[in-house]
Design goal:
This protein is mainly α. It is built from 22 helices and no strands. It has one domain (3-452). 55% of the residues are buried.
């Protein structure tokens, strides 16, 4: 393809921006819930924010396989739209919801083992108790998150993003209100600290879920997509979801395992190091919200083009989306390097509960932000191109690449723990991991084997 076809089509930039604008808002739902938790908990105590960081990553590790699998309903829906298979869309989303319900029962049982797990990990007792409480509540309420991820695919895959945005923003607003009330004991609620933050996150999922169900069942969607009539469990459809969704889920699970191990090892270094790393991660999550929005737009438009078997169009949407991601993340990386202390001041706390004062966290955190600035641009490339490869069904190859890269990085992290090489060393290994991946995605896309994959059948 010529340069202009790949990067110079104004109408493709326009369509990506139009589609990603509400997706940016809807993508901010879960990320902003986590960010709000972190900010309020940092005001509550440094130990609370440290506990939520480790437990939050463990929750992601436990649930990422499920979320990655059920979320693939959106990609299949996009491919079905492109292939003109509207009457099959209701069924695939029903299979995702059945899988979400089944897996929610499993994670609820896993929540019973959180106290034992954190005793084995060996964190300080005060930190361990809060970590176990936070994780247990998130796992008990996991089914709501799974169902929301599955059903959101019905909207994102059809580019019905305004409704998705409204539902997610409603949940975000509800979470902020409940966070404040439950953490600090306001408006008649008991002061629950970490537990309050977890319950607010879980219960706020109800709001978007109810709204999405209402729209899913409306008469127009019922007639066109069979959302009311085609509700039965169908193994052939579920197998299609598992075929493409499981590699995507396993890839997300490996990613979650890597970063959970990363936080667990840092937690063994000390509460200051863990609190600083947790805040840096929360800030990075928020900065990546526009990237997630553009990536989901890439997934929708590339998936629809792939369903039409218009491969040039699919590749062009990936390339144009990549440029949008690079513009945003270059700006963010600059602010990370220049305003690192100012970012961390957002989480300023005068508390020294657990023997930790925030000035210590600030000193460490400002160094981490500068290091983070070195890898954010590469990470945005990863997100954009992995979304594109996932949209065309190339999830198995992505899984294989990530298996090797993650395995090598896990070994490096364990060596840091064994030989006590310190915080900056473990962060340096994480940076190498991230910046090594973009050339591999380019190689796969240029090879063209993804054109042979059929997602919509």
């Amino acid at each position: 393809m010529q340069f202009r076809e790949l990067f110079g089509q104004k109408e493709k930039y326009g369509r990506l921006l139009k589609l990603s604008a509400p997706l940016v808002m809807s993508s901010s739902g879960y990320v902003l819930m986590q960010f709000t938790d972190a900010m309020f908990l940092s005001w509550y105590s440094p130990v609370a924010i440290a506990a939520s960081g480790t437990a939050g990553m463990l929750s992601w590790l436990t649930t990422s396989l499920i979320i990655g699998t059920v979320s693939y309903t959106g990609t299949i829906t996009a491919n079905q739209v492109g292939a003109g298979q509207d009457d099959k869309i209701g069924s695939v989303n029903w299979q995702g919801m059945y899988l979400a319900l089944f897996c929610g029962v499993i994670t609820a049982f896993l929540g019973l083992g959180t106290d034992w797990f954190f005793k084995v990990v060996g964190h300080a007792e005060e930190l361990r108790i809060l970590e176990a409480e936070y994780l247990k509540i998130l796992l008990f309420g996991g089914v709501l998150s799974f169902a929301q991820c599955s059903l959101s695919g019905f909207f994102s895959g059809r580019a019905d993003n305004t409704r998705l945005m409204i539902a997610q923003l409603t949940g975000q607003i509800a979470n902020v209100i409940m966070d404040y009330a439950m953490i600090f004991g306001k408006w008649g609620c008991p002061e629950m600290g970490v537990g309050g933050a977890a319950w607010a996150t879980v219960l706020s999922n109800l709001f978007p879920l109810v709204m999405m169900f209402y729209w899913f069942f409306d008469r127009k969607n019922a007639d066109r997509y069979k959302s009311r009539s085609d509700w039965r469990f169908r193994w052939s459809v579920a197998k299609q979801l598992l075929r493409f969704g499981l590699p995507s889920g396993f890839q997300m699970c490996m990613d979650a395992f890597l970063w959970t191990l990363f936080l667990l090892v840092i937690g063994r270094m000390g509460t200051v190091e863990l609190a600083a790393t947790t805040i840096a991660f929360r800030l990075n999550q928020l900065a990546f919200v526009p990237i997630f929005g553009v990536a989901r737009a890439i997934s929708t438009l590339a998936g629809q083009s792939h369903g039409e078997r218009n491969y040039k169009n699919a590749l062009a949407y990936m390339a144009h989306g990549l440029i949008l991601c690079q513009i945003w993340m270059t700006l963010i990386a600059f602010t990370y390097a220049v305003f690192s202390r100012q970012y961390f001041m957002l989480f300023q706390s005068d508390s020294d509960l657990g023997g930790v004062h925030y000035s210590e966290v600030l000193a460490v955190g400002s160094k981490l932000m500068k290091l983070m600035a070195t890898y954010t641009i590469a990470d945005s490339i990863n997100i954009a191109l992995m979304s594109g490869l996932s949209a065309v069904g190339d999830t198995k190859w992505v899984f294989k690449v990530m298996s090797v890269a993650t395995g090598l990085t896990v070994i490096a992290i364990l060596l840091v723990d064994i030989f006590h090489w310190g915080l900056m060393t473990i962060w340096s290994f994480a940076t190498i991991f991230i910046i090594s991946l973009p050339p591999l995605w380019y190689y796969r896309l240029r090879g063209g084997k993804w054109k042979e994959i059929r997602v919509a059948t």
